[in-house]
Automatic annotation (TrEMBL):
UniProt protein name: Oligopeptide transport system ATP-binding protein
Matching InterPro entries: AAA+_ATPase (IPR003593), ABC_transp_ATP-bind (IPR050319), ABC_transporter-like_ATP-bd (IPR003439), ABC_transporter-like_CS (IPR017871), Oligopep_ABC_C (IPR013563), P-loop_NTPase (IPR027417)
Alphabetized NCBIfam families for the sequence: oligo_HPY (TIGR01727), PRK11308.1 (NF008453)
Lyase found in the keyword field: no
Keyword field: ATP-binding, Nucleotide-binding, Transport
Length: 320
């Protein structure tokens, strides 16, 4: 079985007001019933604007927050039932690369120590073996051994993200969650880091969950995509299918924002009006209806569910 991670109906509700005098409590539904699978050696891209819940999904997967409902299965076993040693093993197997290469590295530690630290924490090998491994990891991410003695401020943003990646793969994880790993970098540097992630995936058989607000960034990396809007997946399927034929109006809008690859490429232009509504007061019915150019009367009343369309993608929209 190739499925490493199986997420079912995952929910994270944050109480924001307690119900008084019998009033119903108010919840911020950051993640509201999200399901997906991640396969060995493959990439799932999770796409959406800020506030759509994609970073909360990452925190739930990393066990930094407990879900309100739903299940996370790692290799067929529900992580909610893991004992301490199984949890420790899971933490070795699932690593994360964060968005901000500036604040995610401790300024008082050398690059070498930062990369070695997971090996120290998990007690992997002797000191000499760990130093050898650091040397190897630096090389794998395109840095030199002399970089080991330098401090984070001595590196560029792209180099800092390479250090983060080296640290994330130090323990030979099977899956790495990348939360907007290139969003803070210059466009010219973004491609280098994406190429590095792709090469490491091929060399190490890594699975990625690649979280981004930018569809053009995930294009070269994703096997599958899940498009999120206000805590829910509105479209999901094979990346190629969705790039060829985006179906949900929100996905179409995200795609029309990417510049065409050739001047002959015909693209439906769609500009999104306004910002994402507050997740505290999500619109009724289809949560996208306040911004959707195709909205019909039904859309503000009835919430569409995720439906399989043909043998391609799953879409939640009343148009289908
Ligand atoms: Fe637009 Fe209606 Fe489809 Fe929602 S259900 S995306 S409002 S057409
Ligand atoms: Mg985020």
């Amino acid at each position: 079985d190739n499925i490493i991670l199986e997420v079912k109906d995952l929910k994270k509700y944050y109480p924001v007001e307690t119900g008084i005098f019998g009033a119903a409590p108010v919840y911020l539904k950051a993640v509201d019933g999200v399901s997906f699978n991640v396969e060995k050696g493959k990439t799932l891209g999770i796409i959406g604007e800020s506030g759509c819940g994609k970073s909360t999904v990452a925190k739930l997967l990393m066990n930094l927050e407990r879900p309100t409902a739903g299940s996370i299965k790692f290799k067929g076993r529900d992580t909610a039932n893991f004992n301490e040693s199984e949890m420790k093993k899971l933490r070795k197997n699932m690593q994360m690369v964060f968005q901000d290469p500036y604040s995610s590295l401790d300024p008082k530690k050398t690059a070498g120590y930062i990369i070695q630290e997971p090996l120290i924490i998990h007690n992997v090998g002797t000191r000499a073996q760990q130093e050898q491994r650091v040397k190897e990891l630096l090389k794998m991410v395109g840095l030199d051994y002399y970089h080991a003695n330098r401090y984070p401020h001595e590196f560029s943003g792209g180099q800092r993200q390479r250090i983060n990646i080296a640290r994330a793969i130090a323990l030979n994880p099977e899956i790495v969650i990348c939360d907007e790993p290139v969003s803070a970098l210059d466009v010219s540097i973004q491609a280098q880091v994406i190429n590095l992630l792709k090469r490491l995936q091929e060399e190490l058989g890594l699975a990625y969950i690649f979280i981004s607000h930018d569809l053009s960034v995930v294009k070269y990396l994703s096997d599958k995509l899940a498009i999120m809007y206000l805590g829910k997946i509105v479209e999901t399927g094979k990346s190629d299918d969705i790039y060829k034929n985006p179906m949900h109006p929100y996905t179409k809008a995200l795609f029309s924002a990417i510049p065409p690859e050739s001047p002959l490429e015909e693209k439906e232009k769609m500009i999104l009006e306004g910002d994402v509504p507050s997740p505290l007061k999500p619109p009724s019915g289809c949560k996208f209806h306040t911004r959707c150019p195709y909205a019909m009367e039904k859309c503000s009343k009835e919430e569409p569910s995720l439906k399989q369309i043909g043998d391609g993608q799953q879409v939640s929209c009343h148009l289908y």
